[in-house]
Amino acid sequence: MKDHVLSFLLNRVTPSIVKAEGIYLYDNRGNRIIDASGGAIVCSIGHGVEEIVETASEQMKRVAFLFRRAFRTSELEEAAAKVCDTTHGDMDRVFFVSGGSEATETAIKLARKFHIDNANPSKFRVISRWQSYHGSTMGAASWSGFTSRRADFTPYLKDFVHLPPTYCYRCWYGKAPETCHLECAQALENEILCLGPDTVSAYIAEPVSGHSLAAAFPPDEHFKRIREICDQYDVLMILDEVISGVGRTGKWYAYQYHDVIPDIIALAKGLSAGYFPVGAAVVRAKIHDTIANKSGVFGSGHTYGGNPVAASVVCRVIDYLKEHRLVERCAEMGNYLADKLETLRSHPSVGDIRGKGLQRGVEFVRDKETKAPLDPQIHFSQQIQDEALLRGVHIESSFGCDRGQAGDMIIFGPPFIITKAQIDDLIAVIDETISFVEKKIGF
Ligand SMILES: Cc1ncc(COP(=O)(O)O)c(C=O)c1O
């Protein structure tokens, strides 16, 4: 049969999956694959959870679709309340969308709308960072700093400001943890002052990076300094928790590691654990109240935003996480995975291991001493992904952490239900795979 699928990699035919259960995928050739990246760091509660399927199916039978502007369902109200509850009351209102890119677009629009209604209509600029990822729609790609995903579409992107990344392993300021004075946080103030504080609307960042830096985690105090700067210049602090949110780092939200409260968080992925396309921009009360009390309109949204089936799934996934204490389990299994990953350091190509909870990354290098990256032509991390798959593990590879030009990474994001024995199996395969690829390229 002729292939009519237009794929991400057009000249590759990916395995066809016929069943997914727990941490495993099963392809049409009878192979069992450990889903070590939970899809794209999505599947937190594991595959094939019957009660989520039933929830979605029952909701579809009751009301499958409504248009948000005209109607709502009790499930939508409940989902919003449950999301706010997981922030322990830090956040007050939820605008549901259909995915992560829409969530960051909505967050940026809400920030702009807040300033307009707060009598500061000159504030519109967005500041973000290089080597960040906030989605692939044109707006989201504009404030993303994921060089390889921007390159082909640059003519369509808006010219937003990107600060140096929060990336301690290759600090752009040449600092080591002992000599760090939070230079990359301070860069935000410098940029705001140069642009003019009356023009800057929002700062957006990932509290733990995703595919662009493979789980880079900022130093202590980084986000506290960011919060101070945002407060000083009336710039809204948006944290993109599309990957890190809803338990992935071992807390409900990664911002909870930093003793700060952002103004807006963007969510997707783990919000439905992959059972339905959903995302959300979640705001503090002051954002909602300012808009509600002034214009009363947030003229944004997509047809499927606020979908009743999505709302039901969100409710059930949050309940499921709580009933099975899966966020706590994620923290515990995250520590176990971190210990196991450390054993990979003996490989000459393993330069750095980083992350939080079950969001972990490995960066590969040609030379550990100098941190020189591997030749991009080798496609080292893609080879790791391909070879691991042949050995029964799906691991997401990524590229470009070294200023977009080089830098091979793999990123782990297994379901929170993974067991210690399954982590052992997974690491054994990754260990063997790294040895194989190292040997193949002549390390
Ligand atoms: C941090 C972050 N933000 C936004 C997005 C975009 O989400 P989506 O692919 O659902 O549009 C992603 C996707 O990987 C992400 O990792």
Notes on the protein architecture:
The chain has 2 domains: 17-48 and 325-440, Aspartate Aminotransferase, domain 1; 51-323, Aspartate Aminotransferase, domain 2 (3-Layer(aba) Sandwich), CATH 3.40.640.10. It is globular. The two termini are 42 Å apart. It has helices spanning 38-41, 50-62, 74-86, 100-117, 138-143, 147-150, 183-195, 222-232, 285-293, 308-323, 326-342, 380-390, 420-440, and strands at 17-21, 24-27, 32-35, 93-97, 125-129, 161-163, 200-205, 236-240, 264-267, 279-283, 350-356, 359-364, 393-394, 396-402, 406-412. With 443 residues, the chain is α/β, with parallel strands linked by helices. The chain is built from 13 helices and 15 strands. It has a 7-stranded mixed beta sheet with strand order 4-10-9-8-7-5-6, sandwiched between helices. Helix 4 packs across helix 9 (285-293).
